[in-house]
Amino acid sequence: MFAGRYLWWMLMGIGIFMFAALSLDYITWLMIQLSGCGDMAGACEPVLRLISGMLKPACIWAAIGVLFMATLLRLHALSLIWFWGPIVAVWFVASTPILLFVAADAAALTQPATLAVLPVALLFLATFVTYLMFALEDGDILPLAASVPLRLTLRLTAVYGALAGLAFMPELSRVAGTLLDMPAISVVIALAQPYLQTVLTLGTGSMAPAYAVLAAFIAALAACLLPHAAAPQPSRSAIMLRRSRR
Questions:
Q1: What secondary structure does DSSP assign to 65-90, as a single string?
Q2: Which of 20, 55, 129, 149 maximizes the CB count within 10 A of its CB?
């Protein structure tokens, strides 16, 4: 998936998510007002069940699915799927609870308390998704391959971000146990998470080390973009010829 198509699908997914989170509640209210079902007790239940119980969750999960699949297809097009695919999957899993929470109460996103507890995995994911929107395939330098030290820094910080996402996801033990139908897994994860949190925070109990690693990840991605920005851009005919050969 090329950068322009990837950007289009990402905007489509974000648009579906924003529509479900911000507009469906107002549409529900408008339908109740127009139908007049509020005058009779229980008459609005079918409308509420249809929109809030079925349509809204379906839109939210569809948006998350579009964002996830578009990112995987973009990684596949850039030949980065084998390492970055599992990392991105973990980031999406760790970010899903906050996305569902925001979808249920969009006003909470403007509250400082909500912004202060945004999972670090969501920040890693947002940074990486933004990087993938650049036309990386149009240059002569492979994406995420500027140099060995830089590539190592990206991979180490990405793995840290994935581990942090799993360590600080309270629902992980319950979700894993339910999906795998193995209650013992839930117990093991619940016992292992505090130890993993201690290791990742260097025993401080603060998120400062995670944010420092995030800053290093952002800096490394920005450094990967510098050769693309400095290199001369190929002509449109050369780009079309290269794509036709693929």
A1: HHHHHHHHHHHHHTT-HHHHHHHHHH
A2: 20
pLDDT tens for each residue of the chain, 246 residues long: 677 888 899 999 999 988 888 887 777 777 777 766 656 666 667 777 777 778 888 889 999 999 999 999 999 988 888 899 999 999 999 988 888 887 777 666 666 666 667 889 999 999 999 999 887 776 655 677 667 888 899 999 999 999 998 888 888 878 777 777 777 888 888 888 889 889 988 888 788 899 999 999 999 998 888 765 444 444 444 444 444 445
56-77 and 3-18 helices, crossing angle to 10°: 170
Using CA atoms, how far residue 236 sits from 123, 130, 228, in Å, is 34, 24, 16
| Residue 230 CB neighbour total at 10 angstroms | 9
- And the tokens for 88? 């991105």
- 3-state helix, strand, coil split of the chain in percent (to 5) is 80, 0, 20
Distance CA 60, CA 235 (A): 40
Quote the pTM value: 0.82
Q: Buried (b) or exposed (e) across 76-114, using 16+ Cβ within 10 A?
A: ebbebeeebeebbebbbbbbbbbbeebbeebeeeeeeee
150: CB partners within 8 A, 6+ apart: 220, 223, 224
The burial of 120, by beta-carbon neighbours within 10 Å (0-12 exposed, 13-18 middle, 19 or more buried), is given as buried
Is residue 206 within 8 A of residue 168, CB to CB? The reply is no
